[in-house]
Amino acid sequence: MRYTIEGEIGVSLDFRITEHPILEFKRGRPVRIYVNGKEVKAHEGETIAAALYASGIKVYSRSAKYGRPRGFFCGIGKCSSCLMRVDGVPHVRTCITPVKDGMKIEYEEYRGQPPVECEFEFEEGRVDADLVIVGGGPAGLSAAITAAKLGVDVLLVDENPKIGGQLIKQTHKFFGAKSNYAGVRGFEIANILLRELEEEKIKSLSSTSVLGIFEEGRKHKLVAVQDNRKFIEISSNAIIVATGASENYLLFPNNDLPGVYGAGGVQTLMNVYGIKPGNDALMIGAGNVGLIVSYQLLQAGVNVKGVVEVMPKIGGYLVHASKLRRMGIPILTRHTIKEAIGKEHVEGAIIAEVDERGQFKEGSEKYIDVDLICLAVGLTPSSELLFQAGCKYAYIPELGGQVAIHNEDLETTIEGIYVAGDVSGIEEASTAMMEGRIAGANVAIKCGASVSKAEEIREESFKHLEALRASPFSEKVLKGKEKVYELWRERK
């Protein structure tokens, strides 16, 4: 299997964004990395995948059976599209691995081939904390800050190099009450929470993946790996799992081509690392995520050719759809993608109208010249760690899929293990932050830390959560939550 590298790397191609109406990208010092021996321009603070994409490299691996190209997709280490050999170590998730000067990256000819020559030093460590929070997004950050302020010894663990989750990608202003950061942009909320994290002197481990949760007497034991090199054992009295969600995929011919990316992955490229994900884009899905990311693509200088939605009505807020329409972006309901066109990467797309049964209408096909197909077709809770720990779970379609069974206090069927945010059911960042506060306060109550204050925060957060879920958009979520609460009462 042979690989070719596109373009004059580090010389003629550079897709880094230099001007943006909202964001300012402060890049680290220039460094040199090498892909199959060829020099690629990079900056400290970028991930390998981001640096490669900025230089026009879209193919990161190939499928084992047919050798089909694979590229960027999720941008948060949850898929296997970007696995490459880095400094001799195979299967490195390049989308969450920061670049280092002189780093050598290679395409993997054979999956599973161990290192031939590799200088690899492995370390071990042990950490103890009252509470371990897995996931540093809106729910995890809110839980950590709430619990720490109440006197709980907290450790926050996140597998990404930058803590903040989805918040650091959001440029739009939030809705709701002032207490829920109404009128504040997502990345600014992340900055506020990260400052509080620092002020409370909360311990945190970034670039650290939790591999398993086990029982250790009356405590919980977590096994984690940091930077693919340091093995860490973590002991705690309580755990809050706030691992978020992963992008849903969509079935259509050539859906595996580089250029077909999840909406969150596209946000990571353009809003976190300041890299233009394409020149001409087609958005699949007109829910809030699809509408918001379409507008963010315009802000990044991408020409959005249109938004297609298979349902008869737009699923997101009218305010987001109206902004796109004012910009002249067509939103086609009862339409979806039929096929992606291209060989090594996306070169176009065919869309078509669907009937009441969701079947393509013959003769309605239309070709669109794009190099980026963005999928905003929902999320699935990232519940795998909870299942491995032994938490009982159920398929709740209203919450996005398989979720750990939990009660109103967000405690699962294993005492001391809680959930918060999208891992408990797909919603929005505002509700995730409220759930984080509730989970953090409940852990404090169980630990006997500032109990009266914790109960006050808990009750106040429940009221805010109820207000946030008063919207008609939350009817499905409320139905799903009632199902999961009933299951907890039955199966506890």
How is the topology of this model organized?
Elements: E1 30-35, E2 38-43, H1 48-54, E3 61-62, E4 69-70, E5 83-86, E6 89-93, E7 104-106, E8 123-134, H2 138-149, E9 154-157, H3 186-199, E10 203-205, E11 208-216, E12 219-226, E13 230-241, E14 245-247, E15 260-262, H4 263-272, E16 280-284, H5 288-299, E17 303-309, H6 318-326, E18 331-333, E19 335-342, E20 346-353, E21 366-368, E22 372-375, E23 379-381, H7 384-389, E24 393-396, E25 401-404, E26 417-419, H8 429-447, H9 451-468, H10 475-491
Parallel strand pairs: 1-7, 8-9, 8-13, 9-10, 13-26, 15-22, 16-17, 16-22, 17-18
Antiparallel strand pairs: 1-2, 3-4, 5-6, 5-7, 11-12, 12-13, 14-23, 19-20, 20-21, 24-25
Helix pairs in contact: 2-3, 2-8, 4-5, 5-6, 8-9
